[in-house]
Specification:
By secondary structure, the chain is α+β, with helices and mostly antiparallel strands. The protein is 25% helix and 42% strand. The strands form 6 sheets. The chain has a 4-stranded antiparallel beta sheet with strand order 1-14-16-15, sandwiched between helices. Strands 17, 18, 19 and 20 form a 4-stranded antiparallel beta sheet that branches. Strands 2-4-3 form a 3-stranded antiparallel beta sheet, with helices on one face. Strand 3 and strand 4 form a beta hairpin. The longest helix is centred in the first third of the chain and has 14 residues.
Length: 390
Amino acid sequence: MALRILIIVCLSYIPVTATAEEPEIQLQLNPVIYQRQITRWGKQGFTATDLSVYEGQRAERFAALGVKEPNPKEWKAFHGLDANQLDARLKQLATEEFYPQVISGYEKRGEPRFAVILNKATEADTILKHSLPSDQLEFTLQSLKEEGYAPLQLDGYIVNNQTLHAGIWKKQKAAAWEASCQIPLNQFQKTFDDYTAKGFRLVDLSGYVVDGAAFYHAIWSKAAGPEWICYFHLTPDEFQKTNQKNLADNFQLASLDAYSINNQPYFTGIWEKVVPVQRVELPLWKSPDAIPMTGLNQKEMTSLDEAIKDFMMLHNPPGMAVAVSYRGRLVYARGFGYADKETKTPVQPDSQFRIASISKPITAVAILKLVEQGKLKLDDRVFDILKQYR
């Protein structure tokens, strides 16, 4: 499929303020790994700024963007909420001054589910709507516009073959805005050209699928902003290559969205010009299935294989070798990932990493921290812990 590219350059260059650390992008996380990622971001000072949930082969998949800022706001993220749980959670968190910034709807076992990101704010200036049929979406856009609200984000999703929509609206300032909704993939380029010719910039783009065809919601604004580029309907490989090219030109991903057609994920993204010190690096591993494995495949150790690949998805090492012995006998030895990323040479079970005894103090510190947390005892037997993977 041909790569579709949209590019617009603002006449007034306004660079994005650089952050202390590089943001992180995750494209194909399962629910368990997504939750671990959110937890890790929270502990490491990152803010989840965007997310999108789309259909996977066995379970829903998550794409997410995390940014580390000098003075981050408090934030919270939730997923797997039904409509009632979402409304109750929003009401409860409003009392703590947390308000929605991102919403993504999806279907799970024939029922609607929602993932949200909320930020701490001093005033309630956002409104969230969900479960809107197509005609009600247009009515809601118009009625809230008359009340002075502009859409911050729109989202389309399918439940039991019915197209529904969600969105977040924010009290607008003076800037003019427009929303173009339910635009077929083959018409979006013309829509893009029409709006940019009128001086609008694209601030949010989301895709969803109806009967195997992609459609888009787009939000346009005449507010000042940095130079920007938009790409849409990209496969994971195309998205990764596009991001690397944009990094070379000092464009950083500002928002993303994802959808799936016949189990093939596609992504949209808006990149903004940044100062050279701010960069985004995509994880090395796009999915657990992309991680090469060597060594004996033992069916009874499949869960250990999966746990190791989950670890690699979360922490992104290029490669690792894992061995387990019991009573002097080697019972498990496998290599994961690459020993050389450039040549894509797989790690073998007997690959030498030549780190001498560096791992010993690191392992000792990690074990003592687990002891302090009450998760281990110093006299615990390692193989007893590994039994869950047998």
